[in-house]
Design a protein that fits this description.
This protein has 258 residues and is an alpha/beta fold. The protein contains 10 helices and 10 strands. Strands 3-4-5-6-7-8-9-10 form an 8-stranded parallel β-barrel, surrounded by 4 helices. The protein has a two-stranded antiparallel sheet with strand order 1-2.
């Protein structure tokens, strides 16, 4: 799959349209996974901010022969961090461990509780952006109501909104809100997709094209014209396309489950 396609965010930052989602990689597999991803051709890495992953990512990047400027690196702030100063402090530590002076994208994950608690953390992201420590800021898996509430109180609008996107997911409102506010949409898979892959329509399409169920999910995500984050460190092949009728079937599966 080509890494040449890129998009421009509303603040002018350029993002590859396809990236490796390393967030759910097990700690003992992180180093090999990031090494494989870089060797396979990925230049967009999305990692979790924990000490094991930060060390593994730094080692893999250092040994890849690539300059940090050749990569697009993203990370996520968990919703448990409510204070602005704490968010700033944590990111400064993470950057030292990553051996970097700047991160390309920092995202705030949707809270499991009252969304009002997320604003101090968002203001921390805004401050990091103003200082030039972060090139772009975004939101991760927030519902449309939370997005609207954040926008009402935010000084700086998110540049990217990450959405779980697959047949059966309820993502249309989030895509619509993102589009209304010039937030570039980014699709990802949930950690557990086995139930989705067992849907008869997906299995039938995989058999028809002699590909895996994962590759059907990938083509579905790409059809939505979003940035795609993919959980496999080996760059997938891109040698077929689903027809419009087949995509309609997958869309119907989504609508049928609401």
């Amino acid at each position: 799959m080509s890494q040449l396609n890129e998009i421009e965010l509303h603040n002018g930052v350029i993002v590859p349209e396809f990236g490796f989602d390393a967030e759910h990689i097990e700690k003992d597999q992180a180093l090999d996974a990031v090494k494989t991803a870089l060797h396979s051709g990925y230049r967009y890495l999305s990692i979790s901010f924990n000490r094991s992953m930060e060390h593994s990512a730094a080692d893999a990047i250092r040994n890849s022969g690539l300059y940090p400027s050749e990569l697009f690196l993203a990370g996520i702030i968990e919703p448990g961090r409510d204070d602005k100063a704490g968010v700033i402090h944590d990111i400064q530590i993470s950057l030292r461990l990553l051996e970097m002076n700047q991160i390309d994208l920092l995202m705030l994950r949707s809270p499991d509780r009252d969304a009002s608690h997320m604003m101090e953390a968002w203001h921390g992201l805004e401050e990091l952006y103003k200082r030039g420590i972060v090139k772009a800021i975004g939101i991760d898996c927030m519902g449309s109501t939370d997005i609207e509430n954040l926008l009402q109180q935010a000084e700086i609008s998110p540049m990217i909104g990450r959405i779980e996107l697959y047949p059966g997911a309820h993502y249309e409102e989030e895509l619509a809100v993102a589009g209304d506010h010039r937030i570039s949409a980014e699709g990802c898979l949930p950690r557990h997709t086995e139930q989705v892959k067992q849907l008869p329509a997906i299995r039938a399409l995989a058999a028809k094209y002699s590909v895996s169920e994962n590759e059907i999910l990938l083509q579905y995500m790409k059809s939505k014209k979003v940035i795609v984050l993919w959980p496999d460190p080996v760059m997938p092949k891109d040698n077929f396309r689903l027809t419009d009728e087949e995509l309609k079937v997958l869309n119907y599966l989504k609508l049928n489950q609401q």
